[in-house]
Specification:
Elements: E1 5-7, H1 14-17, E2 22-24, E3 42-47, E4 53-59, E5 65-71, H2 80-95, E6 102-107, E7 116-121, E8 124-129, H3 132-136, H4 138-149, E9 153-158, H5 162-165, E10 171-176, E11 182-187, E12 190-195, H6 209-213, E13 223-227, H7 235-240, E14 245-250, H8 253-265, E15 272-276, H9 279-288, E16 293-298, H10 310-327, E17 328-338, H11 345-358, E18 363-369, E19 388-394
Parallel strand pairs: 1-3, 8-9, 13-14, 13-16, 14-15, 16-17
Antiparallel strand pairs: 2-5, 3-4, 4-5, 6-7, 7-8, 9-10, 11-12, 17-19, 18-19
Helix pairs in contact: 2-4, 9-10, 10-11
């Protein structure tokens, strides 16, 4: 292959030499490689200022995160075999850990495939394509997935917010087979159905699997409140793990309908009730009604999506944790989580600490949780290390 060359400015190869995969537009020597000369999603050779080959990647010349490295081999043939090799290596990691084929198969940069996410639901695969380069290669990716896994169905969910940053249109399409709107899956021995066409992300959030497994040690015979419940990942598992009763709060009627369906699927329908309401308003009403819970789970959406949201986002985390503490029995268990990459673990701990102090509570962190092994962290890319969970004893 003979791809066009992207030259970097002097010393701007340091990040790549340290193992990173990203190049920003202001790091490119536009005198030698003018951005307007490249096509969106085009494969390129990446070269240092001194002329040292750094590898093969793809480019979107119209955005700040301009180039992403696919391999350190220059002029690499980015074909079905290339992707099949990456997918096979990712599969080996997952299959060494998970007995059931329900997991995140490809986690972007951490699996050497920046801009691509693939979730596996038994014989159904759901792809998230988040970059122009992967969009240009989607047929090759589908062919590689079929070659390695022989799935029955492949769905493309190209509708995430990351596509806005890449100036890409949003769509959902069936790439292979005829997937149903709900697909069967299992997590921690509990049965669910993921709404892969209309649900959030690919329909499910596998990243909290290990944190939800920890519920087993804390919910038996307890009254549990699951806030931001979505389709019941936390709440239904709590009921299956022995909770006496679980209340699930979510603003989506469709999500709560699936909570009820999943409760019936696992024969715990008598243990679960739902509240369709904004979480903050629902907690206020429960406080007014003088309700109390032994265990409260807070797994909110990302309150801090961008750095400029930091202040308002922290206030939201403080507020939701303080409301929860007002509803928590003495003693009780608070599970407080964040999927905001911009909120550090230290920040979340401080949210819980200061919220507890304002409510005159004594808090002790029992378990610090993280994303599961199907969401591996790339040691050079801090953005891949995003999920935080605290199990806190409060009295």
């Amino acid at each position: 292959m003979n791809y066009p060359i992207v030259y970097l400015k002097k010393n701007e190869d340091r990040r790549l030499r340290a193992g990173h995969l990203w190049i920003y537009s202001n790091e490119i020597d536009v005198q030698r490689s003018p951005l307007k000369s490249f096509k969106v999603g085009q494969l390129v050779n990446i070269t240092s200022y001194s002329g040292r080959p750094l590898g093969t990647g793809y480019i979107n010349p119209s955005v700040l995160l301009c180039v992403r490295l696919l391999t350190e081999q220059p002029n690499a043939d980015i074909n079905t075999t290339f992707f099949a090799d990456k997918i096979t290596k990712a599969l080996q990691v997952r299959d060494s850990y998970f007995a059931v084929p329900c997991y995140r198969l490809i986690f972007g940069e951490s699996d050497g495939l920046p801009g691509l996410v693939v979730d596996r639901y038994n014989d159904t695969l759901v792809m998230q394509i988040n970059s122009a380069g992967m969009e240009a290669l989607k047929d090759t990716i589908v062919a590689a997935l079929k070659a390695v896994l022989n799935p029955q169905h492949i769905l493309i969910r190209a509708d995430g917010g990351a596509r806005d940053l890449e100036n890409l249109p949003k769509y959902t399409e069936v790439a292979f087979g005829n997937p149903t709107s709900l697909v069967n899956m299992e997590e921690n021995g509990v049965k669910f159905t993921a709404p892969i066409f209309e649900g959030q992300k690919t329909g499910w959030f596998y990243d909290h699997r290990l944190n939800r497994a920890n519920l087993k040690s804390f919910v038996k015979d307890k009254r549990v409140l699951d806030v931001f419940s979505y389709i019941g990942g936390w709440g239904v598992q709590a009921a299956c793990f022995g909770a006496s009763h679980v209340t699930c709060i979510d603003s989506s009627a469709k999500a709560l309908a699936l909570v009820k369906q999943h409760a019936e699927l696992n024969n715990v329908q008598d243990k679960i009730t739902t509240i369709e309401q904004d979480a903050f308003a629902a907690l206020d009403e429960l406080i007014t009604a003088q309700q109390q819970f032994d265990v409260i789970i807070l797994d909110p959406p990302a309150f801090i999506k961008r750095r400029k949201d930091m202040e308002a986002g922290k206030q939201a985390y403080h507020r939701i944790n303080e409301l929860a503490l007002k509803l928590l029995k003495n003693p009780g268990i608070l599970i407080s989580a964040s999927c905001s990459m911009h909120l550090s673990y230290e920040d979340l701990i401080d949210v819980v600490r200061s919220s507890a102090r304002r409510q005159h509570c004594h808090a002790r962190i029992l378990i610090q949780g993280h994303q599961g092994p199907d969401h591996p962290v790339h040691p050079a890319i801090e953005e891949t290390d995003y999920l935080k969970s605290l199990i806190v004893h409060v009295e």
